[in-house]
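Lab meeting prep.
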Amino acid sequence: MTVQERRATPISYEPQDAWDEAYDADGEPRPLYTPLLAALAGHDLHALAVSVAEHATREGATFGADRAFPVDPIPRLIEADEWRELEAGLGQRVRALDAFVSDLARERRIVQAGVVPERLAGTLPFLEPDLADLPEPVSARIGIAGLDVVRDVEGRFHVLEDNVRTPSGMAYLLATRRATKAHLPYDEPRRPVRAALANLLGSVLSAARPDHEADAAVVVLSDGPANSAYFEHRVLAELAGVPLVHPQDVRVHDGQLVTRDSGRAIQVVYRRTDEDRLRAPDGTLTAIGELLLEPLRDGQLSVVNGFGTGVADDKRIYPYVDAMIGFYLGEEPILPSIPTYDLEDDAARAEALDRLDELVLKPRDGHGGRGVLIGPSASAAELHDAADTVRADPAGWTAQELVRLSTHPTVIEGRLQPRHVDLRPFLFYDGRRTAALPGALTRVALDADNLIVNSSRNGGGKDTWVLP
């Protein structure tokens, strides 16, 4: 313990009108949290928060222009049984999304069956025409997924968004775990994440090898320090025990990707570049496409995650994911989606516009919470302008039912206050089985009653303990 007990800080807490992870509706600690809250009762919470935040910064947990990633010291706890159900639901969803990416690249059975409208399938910006002529990948197209999960006012989990192109947050999870463990005056058993991440990442990258007998490298491909998640690129390359390379460090030789310095062949690229398409909208190859398309076409290279996976996390496709699970797997969703409106559908658009003051409006190509309109907190003028925007460009927007995210005790001004949270678990799929990292990054909105948890909107992170 490094936090000094300079003054006794009694635990005083008032849950909001939402499901609270640590307290029940009567304001009593849930049994899962009782020992943790008791251990915190005699400690200076402000000093604890400062110690954990400073430790995370020393770990290198930054984003954007070297801004510190805010870390709250109070961990989120999840029981083993609840985690197993989450893992099953997330794995089911990723298998269905992976099948959709493969299907859309070739046969389009789901479109022919009318489950996904042709008007959507033909206009998705991440639909790569080159994929139809490439060899089938030896493993999954979606090797790593980071899904955004929320708990509603009844305590039920739902998927809010799918992130299957370049999911981030794994290294932030590790930094948050180390910082919290070093200073929190409570050390109960929890499932370890660092070794599990190394194993899961290694298994996915190994499964992607086109030729397991070849003496060829596996690399992490990064834009370099200009990339806002470069901290994570470095951590994951080190964890996987593979080189971190930049585009200028590699070249194509005789149809194979090789390192520029030694000429060693590269068999697997874990792509973490901001550019995630083979071709630009005008049909010309992107810089990444120029580098990787020929080796992909020759069957000498695999990319994790594969090109074209963006069709599966396009916000316009989200309303159809639960139906995909039934179509490809013949199963009911274990972890349902938040009800979402396809605004290109006339009836759905009319209903959404009539209820815009109750819904959440999201730009199709938005990220980081930018451009999101929370209907109940929007002004009449904002709602009027949003409705006009949707009518003018219905394909550019989606609308979701509002979920009042669950809350979690968070240190604000030296005392525990409820703040809204979501959950970013990470799923790994090697083409045969799915497995979840036994821990997650809980993202927290640090402003009172804010429902947007992204770090670009004054959000931070919490350690998440999966109990054994």
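Slide two material, second protein:
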Amino acid sequence: MSAPPSPFGEEPRIVRSPTDGVELAVFEVLPAQTGETGAHPPLLLVHGATADHTTWRTVGPELAASRRVFAIDRRGRGASGDAAEYAIEREYEDLAAVAEALARDGDAGNVDLAGHSYGGRCALGASPLTPSIRRIVVYEGAPVPAGISYRPTGLVEAVRAALGRGANEEALTTFLAGIVGMSDAELDAYRTNPVWPARVAAAHTILREVEAEASPGASLEALGRVTVPVLLLLGSVSRSPFRIGTDALAARLAHAEVRVIEGAAHAAHHTHAHEFVAAVEAFLDRP
């Protein structure tokens, strides 16, 4: 059986990081069906940990039916470059630069962002750096209050030990089970997915992001200062820290609303695609 056609354009647009010159690959998402896209600002999709732009293969084409949609490979993933030194602030600058580039091309003059998990946190951090970001959707990417952690005890050490042995797949499964909450059955199913090898190849980026998400620049205090409207999406069966972080961030933001997708866990953009798309479109299309 042949693989289904890719829902992404073949050649990415390259935008350079304004700080260290890293080349960032941005793919246009092809619409599932032809529609009128000119009435809305472009939408930039931002993937989470261990992923790349292909994580949006399910919902991206549906969203692209009503607007131009783009998906980035964050630094260190897919077709994008990387740098020796890492800080989450570089991710903020990357997204701000891409948003400005897309805004210059569009009629609306601004861009909406939707980020999954760590990608949502990066989208929030980009907002104060540019006036080109209009609205942000974050799926379970909120920081947690002091004294609470997404990380089970010993997870960082277990991931570091696995990476030190060159056991990237073990590092990835440890991360997915411990932070995302995936069961053995879910992990077995994920291993059969064609994207699994790419996820294993990106396992070396896990530690830097787990450590960066606890930095001051990624905290509730820092990201709670975002002033643009934000939709915080949450799965009803996700691990409790996601709910705690979401509520804490909503209480700090100037313009925030929380919407729960019933029955969803941390990957609603795959498991509950219709509900995910409906929630995003309802928020972005609001006057």
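Talking points for slide two:
Strands lie at 13-16, 23-28, 43-46, 69-73, 111-116, 133-139, 230-235, 256-261.
The mean pLDDT is 94.
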